[in-house]
Design brief:
Oligomer: heterodimer
Number of strands of chain B: 11
Structural class of chain A: mainly beta
Radius of gyration of chain B: 13 Å
Mean pLDDT of chain A: 95
Order of helices and strands of chain B: EEEEEEEEEEE
Structural class of chain B: mainly beta
Low-confidence stretches of chain B: none
Strand content of chain B: over 45%
Helix content of chain B: under 10%
Shape of chain A: globular
Radius of gyration of chain A: 14 Å
Low-confidence stretches of chain A: none
Shape of chain B: globular
Number of helices of chain A: 1
Largest sheet of chain B: 7 strands, mixed
Chain lengths: 122, 109
């Protein structure tokens, strides 16, 4: 059973960098061949895809966030990470990591972490 | 960039009633569309993929239809646990991207 768990600071100051990690258990990031994803849910708004990555290095980002986002993978720890630069209050959200239904391409998300709340405030 | 527009914003219905939710794409997405259910404090749950295929463990009262730019999610007879927010999502191969709709809240009337 694939399980994902987000971790990271719950409070980030404006203009700083938001950093989150997703720890994967129940399968190997390498052998699954998934495009692992980050999604967020701002308060009072809808879901927003942030970006996805493949363990061999391919990354895809939401065009509206692309200039500020970096996603990366640490296969030795079976983790993948999100960095969002120059945050503002608009980046306050519940952040989810997720795995798709199928491997080898962007796909719908079937496995989700429970989500972590990140608040941007001084 | 493909934009997904969901309607209505809110649907007020009673248990046992039929719910019909709409998702319209700004350009054709073929059948590359999914539906999710999200309850407060929980992550989204995949209901339907490729427009009309139910995900594992999803009850038969949930059905999806449509292709191209117009899609629907139908809940044939609402159960108490179905009151939630529903999102559609498309996947495109070129440029590779994912997009969610704004959501429809199904609330108890």
């Amino acid at each position: 059973q694939l399980q994902l768990q987000e971790s990271g600071p719950g409070l980030v100051k404006p203009s700083e960098t938001l950093s989150l990690t997703c720890t994967v258990s129940g399968d190997s990031i390498i052998s699954s061949n998934y495009y692992w994803g980050w999604i967020r849910l701002p308060p009072g708004r809808g879901l927003e895809w942030i970006g996805s990555l493949y363990h061999r290095g391919s990354t895809y980002y939401n065009p509206s966030l692309k200039s500020r986002v970096t996603v990366s993978v640490d296969t030795s720890r079976n983790q993948f990470s999100l960095k969002l630069d120059s945050v503002t209050a608009a980046d306050t959200a519940v952040y989810y990591c997720a795995a798709p239904r199928n491997g080898y391409s962007l796909d719908y998300f079937h496995h989700w972490g429970q989500g972590t709340v990140v608040t941007v405030s001084s | 960039e493909i934009v997904l527009t969901q309607s209505p914003d809110t649907l007020s219905l009673s248990p046992g009633e039929r719910a019909t939710l709409s998702c319209r794409a700004s350009q054709s997405v073929g059948s590359y569309l999914a539906w999710y259910q999200q309850k407060p404090g929980q992550p989204p749950r995949l209901l339907i993929y490729e427009a009309s295929n139910r995900a594992i463990g999803i009850p038969a009262r949930f059905s999806g239809g449509g292709s191209g730019t117009d899609f629907t999610l139908t809940i044939s007879s609402l159960e108490s646990e179905d009151f939630a927010v529903y999102y559609c999502q498309q996947r495109s191969n070129w440029p590779p991207a994912l997009t969610f709709g704004g959501g429809t809240k199904v609330e108890i009337k």
